[in-house]
């Protein structure tokens, strides 16, 4: 989990100097110490910085154990910022969050570096399964993916190359006690498809799954029960929960693309959706 404060260093020279100092191993170890003083469940893993004139944007990346950890990293970042202000007299914390975190917004930074759990998932479907279950072909599903998720996203200047990741993430987050606002970052997922002879290979890259098994709304009875159903009696870790979500996303992406390829999406909504009586 990341948090990115912005500092006013008064001059461009001071900002550049702070950026260089923050690359020193000794100072990085001090930052780690300050962060870990705020919680025994948190570790500072890495940092990046960007300068704009006298301003320095510092992106801090933490391991937050089994929690999603947004509150934890905010407290740790506040501690780090206060200590940096003491150590460097020209440095002033302007804002604990600078929109470089990037929290609950789409961004190229989150696409490249990730925020939360980064999961890869894949599946290969035979021609028989595609024909009998999905009622279409690998070539038709791939064509929909190409024209919709790739070319269509390019036309719209969208960073997301998927069909409905947000649908699955929203349902999963509400059911398991996560912060639903993080659907925004999680929707920045990419789907890869390739026709292999007459089979279809699919892979999902989801770099921004912000979830946990403790904290937030995870303690609520219904949400605890939902995770118990997923865990099947096991002690489910946050990593494993993210993996289950990735599998659900991949299944929905496949189902949705197949429905479009077979021209059955609208008919399915008419037949199975709410308001059936009104449309009859």
Question: Summarize this, please?
Answer:
By secondary structure, the protein is of the alpha+beta class. It is built from twelve helices and eight strands.
How would you sum up this structure, described in words?
The protein has 280 residues and is of the alpha+beta class. The protein folds into 2 domains: 2-95, Hydroxymethylglutaryl-CoA reductase, class I/II, NAD/NADP-binding domain (Alpha-Beta Plaits, 2-Layer Sandwich); 115-279, 3-hydroxy-3-methylglutaryl-coenzyme A Reductase, Chain A, domain 2. The chain is built from 12 helices and 8 strands. The chain has helices spanning 12-21, 25-36, 70-87, 108-113, 127-132, 138-155, 165-176, 183-186, 221-231, 238-261, 265-272, 276-279, and strands spanning 2-3, 6-8, 43-52, 55-63, 92-95, 117-125, 189-196, 199-209. Strand 7 (189-196) and strand 8 (199-209) form a beta hairpin. The mean pLDDT is 94.
What would the keywords be for this entry?
single chain, 280 residues, alpha+beta, Alpha-Beta Plaits, 3-hydroxy-3-methylglutaryl-coenzyme A Reductase, Chain A, domain 2, 2 domains, three-stranded antiparallel β-sheet, 8 strands, 48% helix
H-E order: EEHHEEHEHEHHHHEEHHHH
Distance between the termini: 49 Å
CATH superfamily of the largest domain: 3-hydroxy-3-methylglutaryl-coenzyme A Reductase, Chain A, domain 2
What CATH architecture label of the largest domain applies? Answer: Alpha-Beta Complex
**CATH domain fold name of the largest domain:** 3-hydroxy-3-methylglutaryl-coenzyme A Reductase, Chain A, domain 2
Total number of domains: 2
Low-confidence stretches: none
Tell how many strands the DSSP assignment holds. Answer: 8
Please bin the fraction of helical residues.
40-55%
Overall shape: it is elongated
- Radius of gyration (Å): 22 Å
């Amino acid at each position: 989990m990341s948090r990115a404060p912005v500092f006013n260093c008064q001059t461009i020279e001071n900002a550049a100097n702070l950026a260089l100092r923050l690359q020193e191993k000794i100072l990085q170890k001090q930052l780690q110490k300050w962060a870990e003083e705020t919680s025994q469940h948190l570790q500072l893993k890495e940092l990046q910085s960007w300068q704009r004139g006298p301003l320095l944007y510092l992106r801090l990346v933490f391991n937050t154990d089994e929690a999603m950890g947004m509150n934890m990293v905010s407290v740790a970042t506040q501690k780090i910022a206060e200590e940096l202000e003491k150590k460097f007299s020209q440095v002033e914390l302007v804002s604990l969050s600078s929109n470089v975190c990037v929290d609950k917004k789409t961004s190229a930074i989150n696409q490249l570096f990730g925020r939360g759990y980064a999961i890869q998932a894949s599946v290969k479907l035979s021609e028989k399964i595609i024909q009998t279950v999905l009622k279409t072909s690998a070539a038709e599903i791939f064509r929909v993916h190409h024209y919709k998720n790739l070319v269509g996203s390019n036309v719209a200047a969208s960073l997301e190359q998927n069909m409905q990741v947000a649908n699955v993430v929203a349902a999963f987050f509400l059911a398991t006690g996560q912060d639903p606002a993080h659907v925004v970052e999680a929707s920045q997922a990419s789907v890869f498809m390739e026709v292999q002879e007459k089979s279809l290979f699919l892979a999902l890259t989801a770099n921004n799954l912000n979830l946990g098994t403790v904290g937030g709304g995870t303690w609520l009875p219904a949400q605890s029960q939902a995770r118990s159903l997923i865990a099947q009696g096991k002690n489910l870790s946050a990593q494993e929960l993210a993996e289950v979500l990735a599998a659900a996303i991949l299944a929905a992406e496949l189902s949705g693309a197949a429905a479009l390829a077979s021209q059955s999406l609208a008919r399915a909504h008419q037949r199975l959706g709410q308001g059936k009586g009104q449309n009859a």
